[in-house]
Amino acid sequence: MKNELIIFDCFGVIFGEIAPVFFERYFSPEKAAEVKEKIFVPADLGKMTLDEIFDTMAEETKLSRERVIKEWNELIVLNEEIVPVIEKLREEYTVILLSNAPLGFVEKLMSEYNLEHLFDKTFISCNLGMSKPNPEIYKHCVESFENKFDKVYMIDDNLKNLEPLPALGITPVHFTGIEKMLENLN
Asked: Sheet holding 171-174: strands in order across?
């Protein structure tokens, strides 16, 4: 087994993006940025529940809460091709999940889709009170292990989340597809 750590993002890598797709349906880019700041920045820090998110999104979109929840849930799509790839990577690497997400959401998905076995540890921003791209969240993940890794990779679809990594000694891997990701890991 290699003494290397692979950190996976959740949305945009393991699952498709949800919030950006939902926002694109209902908001201009400027309004989407404003709503993201209002809802998901506090939610990712554990300061807003999923119920409060849905209530606020219903207010912002002028849709019923039920419709918001229905459309949100329809956007939950597992990238099924990545599951066997992560299983194979776990044979050689330590593999963890790091996601910005509101309370309970990722845990629910991991259980629902039976994905807990893919990761040695799971870190969710709302439980840590900090979110990507804050450098401290990456340090926290790496330092949660007793051993020092020879190499650490972070796989994320969001370039903004990868920007602070080189200064931390973490190799950024921009996720654009599985084949390209595997090339970057070799």
From this structure: 121-124, 94-99, 4-8, 151-156, 171-174
What distance in Å separates the CA atoms of residue 105 and residue 65, rounded to the nearest whole number?
A: 17
pLDDT tens column, 82-124: 999 999 999 999 999 999 999 999 999 999 999 999 999 999 9
Q: What tokens were used for 161?
A: 């989340």
Pairwise CA distance, residues 31 & 125, whole Å: 24
Which spans in 9-164 are helix H?
A: 19-26, 29-44, 50-61, 65-74, 82-89, 105-112, 125-128, 135-143, 159-162
Confidence band, pLDDT 50/70/90 cuts, at residue 186: confident
For tokens 């699952």, the residue is 15
Residue 110, Cβ neighbours under 10 Å: how many? 20
Torsion angles phi and psi, residue 139, rounded to 5: -60, -45
For the chain, what is the total number of helices (H) and then of strands (E)?
11, 5
